[in-house]
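Troubleshooting log. The previous run stalled partway through. Resubmitting the same two chains, unchanged.
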Amino acid sequence: MYSVADLKKGLKLTLDGAPYLVIAFDFVKPGKGQALYRTKMRNMINGTILDRTYRSGESFEPASLEERQMEYLYKEGTHYTFMDQQTYEQVVMEEDAMGDAKYYLLENCKVDVLIFGEKAIGVTLPNFVNLRVVQTDPWAKGDTSGNDSKPATLETGYVLRVPPFIEEGELITIDTRNGEYSTRVKG
Amino acid sequence: MMTQHKKLILRSSVIKSIRSFFEAKGFLEVETPQRIPANAPEEHIEPYKSGDLYLHTSPEICMKRLLCRGHDKIFQICRCWRSDERGSKHVPEFTMLEWYRANSTYVDLMIDCEELLRHVAEACCSTAPISYNAKSIAMNNGAIFFTVDEAFATFSDARMEDAVKDGSFDERMVTQIEPALIQDKPVILMDYPIEMASLARRKPGNPLVAERFELYAGGLELANGFSELNDPVEQRERFSHANLKRAAAGFSPLPLPEPFLQELAMLPPSAGIALGIDRLVMLFAGTNSIDDVLAFTPEQL
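Second attempt completed without errors. Output:
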């Protein structure tokens, strides 16, 4: 158990059965009153922000979280299925917990999955992933319209802007932190 | 953002201007011992032990004893210590200004507060409004007054007496009332529930509240003042009550300041106030972190 004295930014705790990350924290004490601990916390599953004020003496359940390397198997409806590389155990993640990861995952690729209790609640992506362009309009040579990018659809279905010289079938690198085109993969 | 050197210059000018303010008003600057056998026991204030003595959490006990001896207008600027207090507006060792007036009530202190803020602002900044918490605050045009009861009725979803009963007074003060005190002038919040004023006199005509007030500017709590209780019997009862509440919350009882209780019958009708100098410098430096106005934070030592 954590006590209010353990509260600090970055602490992960369980509240009403969900994992929360403390994103802001302050000790306050209104004139001659009791010590209060003000926190701002983010629900690690759905991103909801909570403001909570605690008194001394209150305690918290730590959030037991672990990251496991898993293979992404397939998607069915809004469910994404992953398999633990060591135990072959399968877990299912809801689409809203996937966040942006759904734009970058190909079947059989290996990622770190964040597990809370028995539940998969998030995917840690590498900063850069390589994906193939399945559709984009050809570059009209001599185009002087000044457009320096065009839309392209990737094999995951994700659509982004790429430079005009990128062609269908090419492999490109995407920065998963902002979802933008990074470079063309030669070869 | 000001450099640390600029902030230390500001801190020094604030302290100089406080001294010139009180000297001009005929107050005597005093120094009282900082290691004492007993503080006024408070439910929510933890003193540090220092050998067989305690570091003072406020100079109030000795300063009131000076009033009993006939010194009628006194002020002190000193270090105070309160254990376990660390936050964006708290450090365990901080600088306090306290001033006391014999033959006065908390209303005289409110006027002092308005004049002091104006004096310090003009000496350290300018006559223009200052900016704090994204609010422009006129420091030379008096204060806005709310009773605590009015503030609860206006800014909170509970009445003051219900918040006292259900124990949510402090939470509501921090989350609902203090944010509403960011006004275009300093704010004086007055007449606290008697349960929240262990050394203050009951308000004549309204025994449920004490003649206690807090000074705010830009939502920042600066000072706590009151008309002094000078009935030794009631004062002893309140100290004992504070110790009972400490025991109920798992804290050890604290010794009572016996010489103070002995001399209290000689205390003329008086009023006294404690103002956090670090907070005042924060206000003029426009910062929300006490760390910004200190030469060293506790963590840097």
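Takeaways: Helices of chain A lie at 95-98. Chain A has one helix and 16 strands.
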